[in-house]
Request: fold
Amino acid sequence: MIEYASMILPYVTTILLFSSIYAVFALGLNLEWGFTGLINFGHAAFFAIGAYTTVMLNISGYPLILSVAAGVVMAGFFGFLLGIPTLRLREDYLAIVTIGFSEVLRYILLNEEWLTRGPFGIHGFDRPLQDVISYQYYNIFLLMLFVVLLTIVYFSLEKLVHSPWGRVLKSIREDESVPSALGKNVFSYKLQSLAIGSAIAGLAGAMLAFYLQYIDPGTFKPIETFHAWIIVILGGTASNRGTIVGAIILWTFFSVTKFINPYLPFMSHQMGAFRMIVIGLLLMLLMMYRPEGIFGKKEELALSD
Reply:
């Protein structure tokens, strides 16, 4: 029994580590889409900005905590800049601009080797308390740290969205002409939501870098954005609790399906596509029978009539 537990513990720890990282990542998107109605298809860009800023500053000699803070601020700043020319326009413009920005940024990271080491990626940066915690227990420590960060982000967002500020965001999501008629600066609120959501994604990027110990442009492909969308839709639009549960379900699914690979007529490189097909079918069923998601409420559906 002890031997079995020692084998299963690293596996469960890995699932929970990825779940906590992507829960933080998706919470940023949930603020933008679930509570404000902003369609962001380039969320992975801010994931990358947070990760690259953190590790590049650290290998340049800056303290780790300062590097992480800079990564969060830089991701939020780029979200702010991106929102200025787009948020006054129709919602679909933001979707187009964000996915375009995400791909432009990824190709810059890929080609500017003098700055980012390009396809070779970046490694050799510090991790929190790496000289204090034993290597065999480090992932457990990292999980505890990530759970603390996730808890802080979750309760901070809960406080925000249940405040008057959060109620304005919901009113913008439903019909922005109403808060505008009441004297609210709709553009400013949208900009704040996009910047905060992007900053949260930047924090998730730093967390991912600490766990992987290596990042390269391929880590931040557009599929990462759609993982966040799957999590939000699965857990429930405008439900922070649902977002966390959605992240756990998604990464448990990704991990468990690895065990059925020998029983299916697929090559290993085809298994990833098969997983996405299954997820797509499950999401279709979810949209048919429970479009609000597991923990969502019908009245919270963004852009609903």
Summary: Residues 18-221 form one domain. The mean pLDDT is 91. The chain has twelve helices and two strands. The radius of gyration is 20 Å.
